[in-house]
Amino acid sequence: MSQxxxxxxxxxxxxxxxxxxxxxxxxxxxxxxKHQFLIQENDTVQNDHFVVKGLLKAYxxxxxxxxxxxxxxxxxxxxxxxxxxxxxxxxTLNIDCLEPTEVLCLxxxxxxxxxxxxxxxxxxxxxxxxxxxxxxxRRILSLLNSNAKERYEQLLQxxxxxxxxxxxxxxxxxxxxxxxxxxxxxx
Amino acid sequence: MSQxxxxxxxxxxxxxxxxxxxxxxxxxxxxxxKHQFLIQENDTVQNDHFVVKGLLKAYxxxxxxxxxxxxxxxxxxxxxxxxxxxxxxxxTLNIDCLEPTEVLCLxxxxxxxxxxxxxxxxxxxxxxxxxxxxxxxRRILSLLNSNAKERYEQLLQxxxxxxxxxxxxxxxxxxxxxxxxxxxxxx
Lengths: 187, 187
Hints:
The structure is a homodimer.
Chain A: H1 3-10, H2 17-24, E1 27-32, E2 37-39, E3 47-53, E4 55-61, E5 67-74, E6 78-79, H3 82-87, E7 94-97, E8 101-107, H4 108-117, H5 119-145, H6 148-158, H7 160-165, H8 168-175, H9 179-186
Antiparallel strand pairs in A: 1-8, 2-7, 3-6, 3-8, 4-5, 4-7
Protein backbone atom coordinates (compact mmCIF):
# COMPACT_ATOMS: atom_id res chain seq x y z
CA MET A 1 0.00 0.00 0.00
CA SER A 2 2.79 2.41 0.92
CA GLN A 3 4.59 1.29 -2.24
CA UNK A 4 2.97 4.03 -4.31
CA UNK A 5 4.49 6.60 -1.97
CA UNK A 6 7.89 4.99 -2.44
CA UNK A 7 7.42 4.94 -6.20
CA UNK A 8 6.59 8.64 -6.20
CA UNK A 9 9.68 9.60 -4.20
CA UNK A 10 11.87 7.28 -6.27
CA UNK A 11 10.85 9.02 -9.47
CA UNK A 12 12.99 11.83 -8.07
CA UNK A 13 15.56 10.11 -5.86
CA UNK A 14 16.42 6.43 -5.21
CA UNK A 15 15.91 5.08 -1.66
CA UNK A 16 17.22 2.09 0.26
CA UNK A 17 14.65 -0.10 2.07
CA UNK A 18 15.90 1.29 5.34
CA UNK A 19 15.54 4.90 4.20
CA UNK A 20 12.00 4.31 3.02
CA UNK A 21 11.12 2.57 6.29
CA UNK A 22 12.43 5.60 8.15
CA UNK A 23 10.43 7.99 5.97
CA UNK A 24 7.27 5.92 6.35
CA UNK A 25 7.62 5.91 10.14
CA UNK A 26 6.81 9.65 10.02
CA UNK A 27 3.39 9.04 8.46
CA UNK A 28 0.15 7.89 10.04
CA UNK A 29 -2.60 6.02 8.23
CA UNK A 30 -6.22 7.16 7.97
CA UNK A 31 -9.25 5.48 6.40
CA UNK A 32 -12.34 7.51 5.49
CA UNK A 33 -15.80 6.69 4.25
CA LYS A 34 -17.48 8.21 1.23
CA HIS A 35 -18.73 11.74 2.10
CA GLN A 36 -16.55 11.88 5.24
CA PHE A 37 -14.60 15.10 5.82
CA LEU A 38 -10.82 15.03 5.93
CA ILE A 39 -10.73 18.76 6.76
CA GLN A 40 -13.50 21.22 7.53
CA GLU A 41 -13.38 25.01 7.38
CA ASN A 42 -11.97 26.46 10.61
CA ASP A 43 -10.26 23.20 11.61
CA THR A 44 -6.62 23.45 12.58
CA VAL A 45 -4.76 21.65 9.82
CA GLN A 46 -2.39 19.04 11.24
CA ASN A 47 -1.45 17.10 8.14
CA ASP A 48 -0.65 16.93 4.50
CA HIS A 49 -2.15 13.78 2.95
CA PHE A 50 -0.84 11.38 0.34
CA VAL A 51 -3.72 9.51 -1.27
CA VAL A 52 -3.21 5.75 -1.28
CA LYS A 53 -6.71 4.91 -2.48
CA GLY A 54 -9.86 6.87 -3.27
CA LEU A 55 -10.85 10.33 -4.45
CA LEU A 56 -11.28 13.64 -2.63
CA LYS A 57 -12.23 17.19 -3.42
CA ALA A 58 -10.87 20.33 -1.78
CA TYR A 59 -13.23 23.28 -2.08
CA UNK A 60 -14.08 26.73 -0.83
CA UNK A 61 -17.64 27.73 0.08
CA UNK A 62 -18.28 31.44 -0.44
CA UNK A 63 -20.62 33.58 1.64
CA UNK A 64 -23.49 32.83 -0.70
CA UNK A 65 -22.96 29.12 -0.13
CA UNK A 66 -21.50 28.50 -3.57
CA UNK A 67 -18.75 25.84 -3.87
CA UNK A 68 -15.52 26.51 -5.78
CA UNK A 69 -13.27 23.51 -6.27
CA UNK A 70 -9.58 24.14 -5.64
CA UNK A 71 -8.41 20.63 -6.49
CA UNK A 72 -9.29 16.99 -6.74
CA UNK A 73 -6.97 14.31 -5.40
CA UNK A 74 -6.77 10.64 -6.25
CA UNK A 75 -4.17 7.89 -5.87
CA UNK A 76 -0.60 9.24 -5.82
CA UNK A 77 -1.71 12.88 -5.29
CA UNK A 78 -1.23 15.03 -2.22
CA UNK A 79 -3.98 17.13 -0.70
CA UNK A 80 -4.49 19.46 2.24
CA UNK A 81 -5.35 23.12 2.86
CA UNK A 82 -1.79 24.25 2.12
CA UNK A 83 -2.22 27.80 3.29
CA UNK A 84 -3.38 26.57 6.69
CA UNK A 85 -0.84 23.73 6.78
CA UNK A 86 2.26 25.78 5.94
CA UNK A 87 1.25 28.82 7.96
CA UNK A 88 -0.32 26.82 10.80
CA UNK A 89 -3.58 28.74 10.63
CA UNK A 90 -7.14 27.39 10.46
CA UNK A 91 -8.61 25.95 7.28
CA THR A 92 -10.51 28.06 4.77
CA LEU A 93 -11.10 24.99 2.59
CA ASN A 94 -13.18 21.87 3.09
CA ILE A 95 -11.90 18.51 1.92
CA ASP A 96 -14.21 15.52 1.69
CA CYS A 97 -14.26 12.09 0.10
CA LEU A 98 -16.04 11.35 -3.17
CA GLU A 99 -15.15 7.67 -2.71
CA PRO A 100 -14.01 5.52 0.24
CA THR A 101 -10.48 6.81 0.79
CA GLU A 102 -7.19 5.87 2.43
CA VAL A 103 -4.47 8.44 3.06
CA LEU A 104 -1.01 8.64 4.60
CA CYS A 105 -0.80 11.71 6.85
CA LEU A 106 2.33 13.81 7.36
CA UNK A 107 2.33 16.49 10.05
CA UNK A 108 4.24 19.72 9.42
CA UNK A 109 6.50 18.83 12.34
CA UNK A 110 7.36 15.46 10.81
CA UNK A 111 7.76 16.98 7.37
CA UNK A 112 10.31 19.49 8.65
CA UNK A 113 12.04 16.83 10.74
CA UNK A 114 12.34 14.49 7.76
CA UNK A 115 13.64 17.32 5.55
CA UNK A 116 16.22 18.33 8.16
CA UNK A 117 17.34 14.72 8.72
CA UNK A 118 17.51 13.63 5.11
CA UNK A 119 18.76 15.96 2.42
CA UNK A 120 17.40 13.67 -0.27
CA UNK A 121 13.83 13.88 1.01
CA UNK A 122 14.06 17.68 1.14
CA UNK A 123 15.29 17.47 -2.46
CA UNK A 124 12.32 15.33 -3.41
CA UNK A 125 9.82 17.68 -1.73
CA UNK A 126 11.40 20.71 -3.43
CA UNK A 127 11.12 19.09 -6.84
CA UNK A 128 7.48 18.11 -6.21
CA UNK A 129 6.70 21.63 -5.07
CA UNK A 130 8.24 23.08 -8.23
CA UNK A 131 6.06 20.83 -10.38
CA UNK A 132 3.00 21.83 -8.35
CA UNK A 133 3.84 25.50 -8.84
CA UNK A 134 4.00 25.06 -12.61
CA UNK A 135 0.68 23.17 -12.65
CA UNK A 136 -1.01 26.02 -10.77
CA UNK A 137 0.45 28.61 -13.17
CA ARG A 138 -1.03 26.63 -16.06
CA ARG A 139 -4.40 26.60 -14.33
CA ILE A 140 -4.26 30.38 -13.81
CA LEU A 141 -3.48 30.94 -17.49
CA SER A 142 -6.31 28.65 -18.42
CA LEU A 143 -8.72 30.59 -16.16
CA LEU A 144 -7.55 33.92 -17.58
CA ASN A 145 -7.36 32.92 -21.18
CA SER A 146 -9.43 29.99 -22.22
CA ASN A 147 -13.12 29.73 -22.88
CA ALA A 148 -15.18 26.98 -21.26
CA LYS A 149 -14.71 24.57 -24.17
CA GLU A 150 -10.92 24.88 -24.16
CA ARG A 151 -10.73 24.49 -20.36
CA TYR A 152 -12.87 21.39 -20.57
CA GLU A 153 -10.71 19.86 -23.28
CA GLN A 154 -7.45 20.68 -21.47
CA LEU A 155 -8.70 18.98 -18.30
CA LEU A 156 -9.96 15.95 -20.23
CA GLN A 157 -6.59 15.59 -21.90
CA UNK A 158 -4.57 16.09 -18.70
CA UNK A 159 -6.62 13.90 -16.36
CA UNK A 160 -8.78 11.48 -18.37
CA UNK A 161 -9.45 9.25 -15.31
CA UNK A 162 -10.99 12.13 -13.37
CA UNK A 163 -13.85 12.27 -15.85
CA UNK A 164 -14.83 8.68 -15.19
CA UNK A 165 -14.89 9.17 -11.43
CA UNK A 166 -16.08 12.73 -10.78
CA UNK A 167 -19.70 13.91 -11.27
CA UNK A 168 -20.22 16.52 -14.00
CA UNK A 169 -21.43 19.16 -11.52
CA UNK A 170 -18.07 19.04 -9.77
CA UNK A 171 -16.08 19.21 -12.99
CA UNK A 172 -18.11 22.34 -13.84
CA UNK A 173 -17.28 23.85 -10.45
CA UNK A 174 -13.56 23.11 -10.91
CA UNK A 175 -13.58 24.75 -14.34
CA UNK A 176 -15.55 27.75 -13.13
CA UNK A 177 -18.35 27.18 -15.66
CA UNK A 178 -22.05 26.47 -15.21
CA UNK A 179 -23.44 22.95 -15.18
CA UNK A 180 -25.46 23.78 -18.31
CA UNK A 181 -22.36 24.92 -20.21
CA UNK A 182 -20.56 21.73 -19.28
CA UNK A 183 -23.47 19.52 -20.37
CA UNK A 184 -23.45 21.23 -23.72
CA UNK A 185 -19.69 20.68 -24.07
CA UNK A 186 -19.62 17.07 -23.01
CA UNK A 187 -22.67 15.82 -24.89
CA MET B 1 23.15 45.21 -4.25
CA SER B 2 23.24 41.45 -3.66
CA GLN B 3 22.35 42.14 -0.03
CA UNK B 4 18.63 41.88 -0.74
CA UNK B 5 19.19 38.34 -1.99
CA UNK B 6 21.05 37.50 1.20
CA UNK B 7 18.28 39.05 3.28
CA UNK B 8 15.69 36.94 1.52
CA UNK B 9 17.57 33.68 2.08
CA UNK B 10 18.34 34.63 5.69
CA UNK B 11 14.65 35.07 6.44
CA UNK B 12 14.63 31.28 6.15
CA UNK B 13 18.14 30.19 7.09
CA UNK B 14 21.20 32.06 8.45
CA UNK B 15 24.33 32.19 6.29
CA UNK B 16 28.00 32.87 6.93
CA UNK B 17 29.74 35.43 4.69
CA UNK B 18 31.59 32.59 3.03
CA UNK B 19 28.43 30.64 2.34
CA UNK B 20 26.74 33.66 0.80
CA UNK B 21 29.78 34.37 -1.32
CA UNK B 22 29.66 30.79 -2.57
CA UNK B 23 25.95 31.07 -3.35
CA UNK B 24 26.40 34.38 -5.14
CA UNK B 25 29.18 32.95 -7.30
CA UNK B 26 26.50 30.83 -9.00
CA UNK B 27 24.58 33.89 -10.20
CA UNK B 28 25.26 36.23 -13.10
CA UNK B 29 24.20 39.87 -13.26
CA UNK B 30 22.06 41.41 -15.99
CA UNK B 31 20.95 44.97 -16.60
CA UNK B 32 17.98 45.75 -18.81
CA UNK B 33 16.40 48.91 -20.21
CA LYS B 34 12.76 49.86 -19.95
CA HIS B 35 10.73 47.83 -22.51
CA GLN B 36 13.60 45.36 -23.02
CA PHE B 37 12.67 41.67 -23.08
CA LEU B 38 14.10 39.32 -20.48
CA ILE B 39 12.40 36.35 -22.14
CA GLN B 40 10.45 36.07 -25.36
CA GLU B 41 8.03 33.37 -26.43
CA ASN B 42 9.86 30.39 -27.96
CA ASP B 43 13.19 31.32 -26.35
CA THR B 44 14.99 28.56 -24.51
CA VAL B 45 14.83 29.58 -20.86
CA GLN B 46 18.25 29.48 -19.25
CA ASN B 47 17.64 31.28 -16.00
CA ASP B 48 15.46 32.08 -13.05
CA HIS B 49 15.82 35.77 -12.10
CA PHE B 50 15.95 37.51 -8.76
CA VAL B 51 15.00 41.16 -9.15
CA VAL B 52 17.51 43.52 -7.55
CA LYS B 53 15.97 46.68 -8.99
CA GLY B 54 13.10 47.49 -11.31
CA LEU B 55 9.79 46.05 -12.37
CA LEU B 56 8.82 43.37 -14.89
CA LYS B 57 5.74 41.70 -16.20
CA ALA B 58 5.39 38.08 -17.32
CA TYR B 59 2.52 37.55 -19.74
CA UNK B 60 0.95 35.23 -22.23
CA UNK B 61 -0.28 36.42 -25.63
CA UNK B 62 -3.18 34.35 -26.94
CA UNK B 63 -3.88 33.61 -30.60
CA UNK B 64 -6.05 36.71 -30.87
CA UNK B 65 -3.15 38.83 -29.67
CA UNK B 66 -4.66 39.47 -26.24
CA UNK B 67 -2.25 39.75 -23.28
CA UNK B 68 -2.86 37.88 -20.01
CA UNK B 69 -0.55 38.76 -17.16
CA UNK B 70 0.78 35.81 -15.18
CA UNK B 71 2.77 37.87 -12.69
CA UNK B 72 4.55 41.09 -11.96
CA UNK B 73 7.97 41.11 -10.34
CA UNK B 74 9.73 43.87 -8.46
CA UNK B 75 12.63 44.08 -6.00
CA UNK B 76 13.08 40.88 -3.95
CA UNK B 77 10.79 38.82 -6.24
CA UNK B 78 11.76 35.97 -8.57
CA UNK B 79 10.56 35.71 -12.14
CA UNK B 80 10.96 33.43 -15.12
CA UNK B 81 8.83 31.16 -17.30
CA UNK B 82 8.85 28.37 -14.69
CA UNK B 83 7.31 25.75 -16.89
CA UNK B 84 10.03 26.24 -19.47
CA UNK B 85 12.76 26.63 -16.83
CA UNK B 86 11.98 23.52 -14.79
CA UNK B 87 11.13 21.32 -17.78
CA UNK B 88 13.80 22.82 -20.03
CA UNK B 89 11.37 23.52 -22.82
CA UNK B 90 10.86 26.77 -24.78
CA UNK B 91 9.01 29.75 -23.31
CA THR B 92 5.28 30.24 -23.73
CA LEU B 93 5.47 33.50 -21.76
CA ASN B 94 7.03 36.85 -22.52
CA ILE B 95 8.76 38.82 -19.80
CA ASP B 96 9.66 42.47 -20.29
CA CYS B 97 10.67 45.45 -18.21
CA LEU B 98 8.24 48.17 -17.14
CA GLU B 99 11.16 50.08 -15.62
CA PRO B 100 14.97 49.93 -16.00
CA THR B 101 15.77 46.63 -14.31
CA GLU B 102 18.64 44.70 -12.74
CA VAL B 103 18.43 40.98 -12.07
CA LEU B 104 20.59 38.19 -10.70
CA CYS B 105 20.31 35.13 -12.96
CA LEU B 106 20.46 31.52 -11.78
CA UNK B 107 20.66 28.75 -14.36
CA UNK B 108 18.89 25.47 -13.68
CA UNK B 109 22.28 23.75 -13.66
CA UNK B 110 23.62 26.10 -11.00
CA UNK B 111 20.39 25.89 -9.01
CA UNK B 112 20.61 22.09 -8.86
CA UNK B 113 24.33 22.22 -8.12
CA UNK B 114 23.81 24.66 -5.25
CA UNK B 115 20.96 22.56 -3.86
CA UNK B 116 23.04 19.39 -4.04
CA UNK B 117 26.08 21.07 -2.45
CA UNK B 118 24.30 22.92 0.34
CA UNK B 119 21.41 21.35 2.16
CA UNK B 120 20.46 24.70 3.66
CA UNK B 121 20.00 26.36 0.29
CA UNK B 122 17.79 23.48 -0.86
CA UNK B 123 15.83 24.04 2.34
CA UNK B 124 15.46 27.71 1.57
CA UNK B 125 14.30 27.06 -2.00
CA UNK B 126 11.77 24.46 -0.80
CA UNK B 127 10.29 26.90 1.71
CA UNK B 128 10.08 29.66 -0.92
CA UNK B 129 8.42 27.27 -3.35
CA UNK B 130 5.83 26.30 -0.72
CA UNK B 131 4.96 29.95 -0.15
CA UNK B 132 4.70 30.50 -3.89
CA UNK B 133 2.36 27.52 -4.18
CA UNK B 134 0.06 28.95 -1.53
CA UNK B 135 0.03 32.38 -3.22
CA UNK B 136 -1.01 30.79 -6.52
CA UNK B 137 -3.78 28.81 -4.82
CA ARG B 138 -5.10 32.07 -3.37
CA ARG B 139 -5.06 33.65 -6.81
CA ILE B 140 -6.99 30.70 -8.28
CA LEU B 141 -9.64 31.01 -5.56
CA SER B 142 -9.85 34.70 -6.20
CA LEU B 143 -10.32 34.10 -9.96
CA LEU B 144 -12.98 31.45 -9.32
CA ASN B 145 -14.79 33.21 -6.55
CA SER B 146 -14.41 36.94 -6.40
CA ASN B 147 -15.99 39.62 -8.49
CA ALA B 148 -13.86 42.34 -10.08
CA LYS B 149 -14.24 44.70 -7.12
CA GLU B 150 -13.10 42.13 -4.58
CA ARG B 151 -10.15 41.06 -6.72
CA TYR B 152 -9.08 44.65 -7.08
CA GLU B 153 -9.28 45.28 -3.35
CA GLN B 154 -7.39 42.08 -2.50
CA LEU B 155 -4.56 43.05 -4.84
CA LEU B 156 -4.45 46.60 -3.52
CA GLN B 157 -4.23 45.29 0.03
CA UNK B 158 -1.58 42.64 -0.75
CA UNK B 159 0.68 44.74 -2.96
CA UNK B 160 0.05 48.46 -2.42
CA UNK B 161 3.34 49.45 -4.12
CA UNK B 162 2.36 47.74 -7.36
CA UNK B 163 -0.44 50.25 -7.83
CA UNK B 164 1.92 53.18 -7.77
CA UNK B 165 4.20 51.65 -10.36
CA UNK B 166 2.02 49.67 -12.75
CA UNK B 167 -0.31 51.24 -15.37
CA UNK B 168 -4.02 50.58 -14.84
CA UNK B 169 -4.34 48.67 -18.13
CA UNK B 170 -1.88 46.08 -16.85
CA UNK B 171 -3.54 45.76 -13.46
CA UNK B 172 -6.79 45.07 -15.36
CA UNK B 173 -5.09 42.39 -17.42
CA UNK B 174 -3.65 40.74 -14.28
CA UNK B 175 -7.08 40.69 -12.63
CA UNK B 176 -8.79 39.40 -15.76
CA UNK B 177 -11.17 42.38 -15.95
CA UNK B 178 -11.70 45.05 -18.60
CA UNK B 179 -9.96 48.42 -18.42
CA UNK B 180 -13.37 50.08 -18.13
CA UNK B 181 -14.35 47.96 -15.13
CA UNK B 182 -11.09 48.81 -13.41
CA UNK B 183 -11.48 52.55 -14.04
CA UNK B 184 -14.89 52.40 -12.43
CA UNK B 185 -13.48 50.57 -9.39
CA UNK B 186 -10.46 52.73 -8.85
CA UNK B 187 -12.07 56.13 -9.36
